[in-house]
Amino acid sequence: SLKIMSGALTVKRKAEEDNQVAKRTRTDGTLISQGPKRTSALMAPIMLLTGHAGEVYTFRFAPDGEHCASASFDKDIFLWDVYGECANYGVLHGHKQAVLQLQWSADSSHIWSASADRTVMLWDVEQLKRVKKMT
Length: 135
Prior knowledge:
By secondary structure, this protein is mainly beta. The protein has strands at residues 2-5, 8-12, 21-25, 31-37, 46-49, 56-61, 67-72, 77-81, 88-92, 99-104, 110-115, 120-124, 129-134.
């Protein structure tokens, strides 16, 4: 799930316990229910992403699962690593008003952004540069 609080973006993730089975038990230790084995390699159930100066309007995971992007009222697009320390590896500047929507390309190398400034931009997320602007 996704929470937005005071310019900070919080994404809940599953805890890292390789090949553990999700279990629910009573206080006496008896098993109530059991879920499938974990397949996630994420470090923690929650990642706190800070940096936006305004409300976050959109957030998307890349199709490759390695990165995610957030965009906000502050006109910027932040790019994040999903694994490890969830580092912010880039900020894309260019819109003149709030960024309302993001969409990753199928190969996770580009991201489309739509803004309240009535423009759509295509970004190269490896070079951290705008490729195309459409009005």
